[in-house]
Structure formats: structure tokens, C-alpha cells
């Protein structure tokens, strides 16, 4: 019965997805992080699983407990751990989607003990860059692998998204528009997808479960050009 059977157009394919924030430790009790809820990447993982893919979800520390039936979840904390897990699972992935909000910087030194407050001075925390996971996968990507990145921008959206598409050697960049309709933690998202082949597809705001379908349909359909 076609009405009840989901189209298994990803069956036999491996899909690697990152989701959530990363936490970069300062000391045993503190970290640098961000507000990513992980909802977009989790919705993508579920969508790919329902379409028959073998999904590996590399998941940063997200606040909400979830059921991930049938999905291989690798829980990580830091950008370094996420990088490691992604490189372990990229080589046989047909599709890799980097939806995580990876910290761009981490403290150079992680104090083994809780940093104590002192009366006289304020600590200076030296930051160093984390590795760019998407860019590192773009550098080793094979012809038959599809690599998808996200971009969250507040200004100069299109140029920044196109720049990320190029510098990270991605096949698609999903631009997340930050606006009143889609605040952090929202179940809704408004996206525009930029493809390496020049396509630009704008979507209306919709639930992240629907956005996940739009993203997967777009990367599987090389001829779609209309605005949906
Ligand atoms: N990304 C990544 N590893 C990082 C930083 C980002 O894999 N260390 C990925 C994100 O998962 C996303 C894409 O790169 O798919 C773009 O992330 P974004 O933060 O928008 O871009 P940056 O290159 O970090 O640049 P900026 O934050 O300055 O906009
Ligand atoms: Ca960033």
C-alpha cells in the first residue's frame, strides 16, 4: 500500500549527520557553547532513516532526551571529538550533512581544576581555533559523495553562503535565515539551498520535519529549479 509505505529512496545508503552544539571545556565545570537545539540535524537523521538509509548521527550535547530508534547515535561533547567521529564514519557515507553548530574557538588550556575567583584580577582566557569539520571532509571527498553544510548568517546572507559552498568544497549549503518566525530552539525553520551547480532554491518557513524532507529531496533531485 503506497499510501502507508514511505519511499525508500535511500535504502542501502549510509548517511552521516552532525547535530547540536559543541561544548569546549574551560575547567571541569565550565564550557564555551551555544544555543543549538540539534532539532534540525535530528529531523534530518529521522527522515533519512525513514527513507531506508543507515544513519550515523554524531550528536553534541543537546538538552532534550529523544528516541532515536534505528539510528546509530555517537554522542560527543567537543569539536575535537566530533571531528574524530566524523572522520571515522565518512569514508563509506554516500551523503554527509553537517548540521551541528560547532564552536569556532576553544580555550587553549583546559584547567584540570576549577578556576578560582580571586580578589585582584580577572582571568584572561586564550582561545585557539577548532578544526573545521566540514572543510576537512570537503578536502577528502570522493566524486560519488554528497557533502552538505549549513550556514547561519545575520547579514550578507547569500554571499556568505556561496563563499562557504566554495571554500569548504560542499555540494550544497543550507542557509538558515534567522528571523522572528524561527528563533533558536524553534520547531520551524526558513531555509534557502545553494547548490554547487548554481541552483538557488528558497523555501517558506515550515516545521523542521518538513524542512528535512525539502533538504533530502533537493540533494537527491538534480533538476529541480523552482521555488517551493
Ligand atoms: N562547521 C564545521 N566545523 C567547524 C565549524 C563549522 O564542520 N569547526 C560546519 C558547520 O556544521 C556548518 C558549516 O561548517 O555546516 C558552516 O558553519 P558556520 O558556523 O555557519 O560557518 P563558519 O565557517 O564557522 O564561519 P562563521 O561562523 O564565521 O560564519
Ligand atoms: Ca562558525
UniProtKB/TrEMBL annotation:
Residue ranges annotated for the DNA/pantothenate metabolism flavoprotein C-terminal domain, each copy included: 10-220
Positions of the UniProt region annotated as Phosphopantothenate--cysteine ligase: 15-228
Keywords: Decarboxylase, Flavoprotein, FMN, Ligase, Lyase, Magnesium, Metal-binding, Multifunctional enzyme
GO MF: phosphopantothenate--cysteine ligase activity; phosphopantothenoylcysteine decarboxylase activity
Listed cofactors: FMN; Mg(2+)
Residues reported in the UniProt entry to bind CTP: 104, 114, 150, 164, 168
Cofactor mode of binding and number, as noted: Binds 1 FMN per subunit.
EC number: 4.1.1.36, 6.3.2.5
Catalytic activity: (R)-4'-phosphopantothenate + L-cysteine + CTP = N-[(R)-4-phosphopantothenoyl]-L-cysteine + CMP + diphosphate + H(+); N-[(R)-4-phosphopantothenoyl]-L-cysteine + H(+) = (R)-4'-phosphopantetheine + CO2
Pathway(s) it belongs to: Cofactor biosynthesis; coenzyme A biosynthesis; CoA from (R)-pantothenate: step 2/5; Cofactor biosynthesis; coenzyme A biosynthesis; CoA from (R)-pantothenate: step 3/5
Coiled-coil parts of chain: none
Function according to Swiss-Prot or TrEMBL: Catalyzes two sequential steps in the biosynthesis of coenzyme A. In the first step cysteine is conjugated to 4'-phosphopantothenate to form 4-phosphopantothenoylcysteine. In the second step the latter compound is decarboxylated to form 4'-phosphopantotheine.
Family: In the N-terminal section; belongs to the HFCD (homo-oligomeric flavin containing Cys decarboxylase) superfamily.
The name this protein goes by in its record: Coenzyme A biosynthesis bifunctional protein CoaBC
Phylogenetic classification of the source organism: Bacteria, Pseudomonadati, Bacteroidota, Chitinophagia, Chitinophagales
Gene: coaBC
Parent-record interval covered: 175 to 402 of 402
